[in-house]
Amino acid sequence: MIYTVTLNPSIDFLVEVENLRLNQLNRIKNEKKFPGGKGINVSRVLHRLGTDTTVLGFAGGFTGRFIEDWLKKEGISTQFVYVGEDTRINIKLKNEKGEETEINGQGPFISPDQYRQFEEKLLQVKPGDTVVLAGSIPRSLSPSLYEELTSRLSDRGIRVVVDIEGPVLAKVASRRPFLVKPNHHELGQLFNARLETAEEVIPYGRRLQQMGAEHVIVSMAGKGALLFTPKAVYMADVPKGNVVHSVGAGDSMVAGFIAAYDQSGDIVSAFQTSVAAGSATAFSQDLCRKEQVEHFRKSIRLYSL
Ligand SMILES: Nc1ncnc2c1ncn2[C@@H]1O[C@H](COP(=O)(O)OP(=O)(O)O)[C@@H](O)[C@H]1O
Ligand SMILES: O=P(O)(O)OC[C@H]1O[C@](O)(COP(=O)(O)O)[C@@H](O)[C@@H]1O
């Protein structure tokens, strides 16, 4: 079973505004609401790809109910711990030029007792299961929580995948997760470097892997993606297409990789599916669908570097 952890879920409020002007009234041209948060997106894509998954995390108020109801309708099992304040709403704003601006909320307060309830549920996982720890850690919880959970779970034979930005990423890498997936900007921030090209990314991807992560995927939006395994480095082209909204594209990569690896045990082929899923989501309003992933997968070329 693949368990995803979203400590800070969200409703993603996608809005399109033409000629956005500050200090004036703007009207929305198109709007959509989706359940969001990295682990939740991973589970939604896993489910679409036919892989069993359970969502863990915290949910509160009317926004928390919106997410839980949506997942239930899609047939995805959830084990949320309920909290007193509302789950956050994240604004994803797109203008007429296709530029995307994100404003993410802080999220509700989690009490020590609520955290204990969550941990009890999480620690029921068994050797052979996969746990995805993804997205920001709420301010009321320990910033070292991902590192601690990665060590505890990995030591028990559980495959741990982590998607987090900031200094926590380096600390988590040293606890030997199965996979980490920063984008090139996040990787650059970690090492205080400006990374734009694959050549620039490669030494830093290697460094992150040498810190302890078994596999590293570095996505570079429309410029391709890199996979670092213990034996080799691979580069993938991304398919060309019209980007509708890239929210959840990175999460779809994580889901595509896990779903394909779960089925085939082949890392390189899983990377191909991962890129196909990322791009299929970027080319969609909501997350990708299985047929799209299968379609794009065929056109992705891989190079061993
Ligand atoms: N312009 C684009 N064209 C094709 N694919 C894209 C584009 N932007 C994003 N993607 C797909 O989404 C994946 C993740 O995008 P990226 O922006 O790097 O990550 P994140 O969503 O984590 O910030 C890419 O590897 C690619 O597969
Ligand atoms: O927990 P964070 O870092 O605030 O990120 C949450 C946001 O990330 C998302 O999961 C999207 O992530 P990606 O675009 O990187 O795949 C949104 O659904 C959500 O609003």
Please give a structural write-up.
- The protein has helices at residues 38-48, 61-74, 112-122, 145-155, 168-173, 184-191, 198-210, 249-264, 267-282, 290-297; strands spanning 2-6, 10-17, 28-36, 53-59, 77-82, 88-94, 100-103, 130-134, 159-163, 179-180, 215-219, 225-228, 233-236, 302-304.
- By secondary structure, the chain is an alpha/beta fold.
- The chain is built from 10 helices and 14 strands.
- Helix 5 links the parallel strand 9 and strand 10.
- 37% of the residues lie in helices and 24% in strands.
- It has a single domain, classed as Ribokinase (UDP-N-acetylmuramoyl-L-alanine:D-glutamate ligase).
- The strands form 2 sheets. It has a 10-stranded mixed β-sheet, with helices on both faces. It has a 4-stranded mixed β-sheet with strand order 3-2-6-7.
- The chain binds adenosine-5'-diphosphate and 1,6-di-O-phosphono-beta-D-fructofuranose (FBP).
Which geometry do the CA atoms define?
globular
CATH superfamily label = Ribokinase
CA-to-CA gap between the ends?
Answer: 33 Å
Helix content: 25-40%
CATH topology: UDP-N-acetylmuramoyl-L-alanine:D-glutamate ligase
Overall average residue pLDDT: 96
User: What compounds are bound to the protein?
Assistant: adenosine-5'-diphosphate, 1,6-di-O-phosphono-beta-D-fructofuranose
Give a quick account of the main beta sheet: strands, pairing sense, barrel closure: 10 strands, mixed
List low-pLDDT spans.
Answer: none
Protein name: Tagatose-6-phosphate kinase
EC number: 2.7.1.144
Function: Catalyzes the ATP-dependent phosphorylation of fructose-l-phosphate to fructose-l,6-bisphosphate.
Pfam family, one: PfkB
